[in-house]
Amino acid sequence: MANTKCRWDCPEQWSEWCEWLSAGLHARNRWRLPVLMTGILFASGRRTVTTWLRAAGISDDFQDYFYFLTCVGRKSESIANQLVELLLQTLPLPKRVLLAIDDSPTKRYGPKVEGADVHHNPTPGPADQPYLYGHVWVTISLALRHPKWGPLAMPLRAMLYVRKRTMETIPKSRHWQRFATKLQLAARLVEWIVPLLKKAGKTVWIVIDGGYTKRPFLRRALKTGVTIVGRLRKDAALKDLPPKLPKRKRRGRGRPRKYGKNRISLAKRAGQKRGWQTIDCTIYGEDTTKTYKTFLATYGPVGGMIRVVLIKEDHGWYAFFSSDPTVSVKEILEAFADRATIEQDFHDVKEVWGSGQQQVRNIWNNLAVYNLNLWMHTMVELWAWDKNRRQLVDRSDSPWDDTERRPSHANRRKSLREQILRNELSVITTVWSLPRKIIRLAENLMALAA
């Protein structure tokens, strides 16, 4: 008979959240999701799916869980909907919600991994490898500012980018969707989440890097009514504002001009010594002063007027923009700085949760395991949101460490595991009367296990 209950005694709040997420699945197999998520939490070593199942105490029906991953991959949007609803109900989200979009690769091995191909390596490392073999994930995260820990992000959903030439290698029985570029996948993510947030009465901002400042993404995203903040190429084709006609002068035939006649050179604007100003803002959680220039321009990919901000640093200058020309310089700089939180997400998902180590070949299974890693990251951050420093990390055995440093995501995950193990120990001590020495030994072993 299949094991229908997780062997770990999880906190009531965590169990309720896992049940909430499982509502996005069919009632026939939704009970498997909380069991699998607990296995992901306690998995150690190389994070394969079998490691997840072993940590969850699953033995007899392990094969059913591999089939279950296919269901999770196909229903990833429904589960992500449940996650967004959970965050809206649990967190004190501000009126203006900031979302970050970017893509990241995960290395894979083996010629039969569906959807994998050779991609550009954004982090070559010491070996200086310009390319890697694996998957590329277009991810959307909710960027927040914690009242104690500063900027952080909670990943919500990822879509797999498959190269056009690789689509032919995917079996037709998978019923995989048609080819889409990374820009089109990012636009789909925006079109998916914006209605959910607007229904909750939120105003949505999207922050992007220079790779997504292109027409195929910008035009579709702006149709949803969001404000986009991003980085501009230094050779961006900007133009000045269209001329204003006098009120009494009759306009000629055709539509009024949307773009000016004169080209704007960002390099020339940045090279001029006059016009620079300073502003105080919070960047990467620290108060700092930035030297800037700002002006209005028109930009074809956006389809109209934007606000441009030039920032002068010791090592050069950078250009940023907002699709809403009424946004202030401080808001633009702070929003783009918070985009770095999604990069931290990619690091934690790979280093803490072992994303990319799961040895699955089916393309839906690959989609499932990556999104499961994202959702585990978000669930742990949600669980630790209202915890204080002492509840999340104990650095008494590390006198060389900075005691004021904010708890890392690994610290938060470890704290949750320790609480579950303490629950297990408390259950045992209520049933049996154990010597104090045995209890102390068990606590030391739990600290090592967590």
Question: How would you sum up this structure, described in words?
Answer:
- The protein has 450 residues and is an alpha+beta fold.
- It has three domains: 12-209 and 340-383, no CATH class; 229-243 and 258-337, no CATH class; 405-449.
- Helices cover 38% and strands 22% of the residues.
- It is built from 14 helices and twelve strands.
- The protein has helices spanning 12-22, 32-42, 49-56, 62-74, 76-90, 182-199, 215-222, 266-271, 329-337, 340-351, 363-383, 389-392, 409-431, 436-449, and strands at 96-107, 117-120, 131-146, 150-161, 203-208, 227-232, 238-239, 263-264, 277-283, 286-299, 304-313, 316-322.
- Strands 1, 2, 3, 4, 5, 6, 7, 8, 9, 10, 11 and 12 form a twelve-stranded mixed beta sheet that branches.
- α7 links the parallel β5 and β6 (227-232).
- α1 (12-22) crosses α2 (32-42) and α2 packs across α3 (49-56).
- The longest helix is centred in the last third of the chain and has 23 residues, at 409-431.
- The two termini are 30 Å apart.
- The relative contact order is 0.14.
- The mean pLDDT is 88.
